[in-house]
Amino acid sequence: MVVSKRIMKTAVARNFYKRVARDVFRHARKDLGSLDFVIRPRAALGSADAPVARAELHGLLQKSFSLCHSRMAAAANR
Fold first, then answer.
1. What CA–CA distance (Å, rounded) separates 65 from 73?
2. CA 41 – CA 46 distance, rounded (Å)
3. DSSP structure string for 54-70
4. What integer pLDDT is reported at residue 46 of this predicted model?
5. Is pLDDT of 32 > 80?
6. What is the DSSP string of 16-77?
7. What's the helix, strand, coil split of the chain in %, to 5?
8. How far apart are CA 3 and CA 41, in angstroms?
9. How far apart (Å, rounded) are the C-alpha atoms in residues 61 and 58?
């Protein structure tokens, strides 16, 4: 996992974001299966924003997971 210095200036902020992202992926591991994801943070994350970031990231993972499965099901029906 890589977080750009341009977005998060300090190593502490980058490492914090990585920990939050890893935690969300760890909790959603059984639902994700063998999918690969690219996450590009667009703004710095403060420690007070961690619960909000976890919720947003979890919601985005669920949305992309359901979209991927619906596309795979549509392709299988062709």
1. 12
2. 12
3. HHHHHHHHHHHHHHHHH
4. 64
5. no
6. HHHHHHHHHHHHTHHHHTT--------S---GGGHHHHHHHHHHHHHHHHHHHHHHHHHHHT
7. 65, 0, 35
8. 7
9. 5
Least Cα distance to 65 among 39, 28, 40 occurs for 28
pLDDT score of 66:
82
Residues in the chain, how many?
Answer: 78
Rounded distance, CA 76 to CA 4, Å? 38
> Which residue's structure tokens are 């591991």?
29
The residue type of 35 is L
By the 10 Å C-beta count (0-12 exposed, 13-18 middle, 19+ buried), 55 is classed as exposed
Residue 40: per-residue pLDDT: 78
Whether the CB-CB separation of 56 and 24 falls below 8 Å is answered with no
Q: Where are the beta strands (DSSP E) in 1-78?
A: none
Instruction: Give the pair of three-digit tokens for residue 48.
Output: 């007070």
